[in-house]
Amino acid sequence: NEVISLETIRLGLRGDTFLHFLPEEMKEEE
Fold first, then answer.
1. Strand extents, DSSP E, 1-30
2. Using CA atoms, how far apart are residues 27 and 30, in angstroms rounded to an integer?
3. d(CA 15, CA 24)
4. How far apart are CA 30 and CA 6, in angstroms?
């Protein structure tokens, strides 16, 4: 799963997909 997260970041932060992999703490920082 970590690989998927890294791939998402490398793809350019798809937004929804990126937030989906972010920890709860970071999601609350919107």
1. none
2. 6
3. 15
4. 20
- In the chain, which stretches have pLDDT less than 70? 1, 12-30
Task: Give me the number of domains the chain comprises.
Answer: 1
pTM for the whole thing? Answer: 0.27
What is the residue range of 23's domain?
A: 1-30
Spatial distance between the Cα atoms of 2 and 29, rounded to a whole number of angstroms: 21
* Rounded Cα gap, residues 2 and 24, in angstroms: 16
Return the pLDDT at 18.
59
DSSP 20: H
In the chain, the amino acid numbered 8 is: T
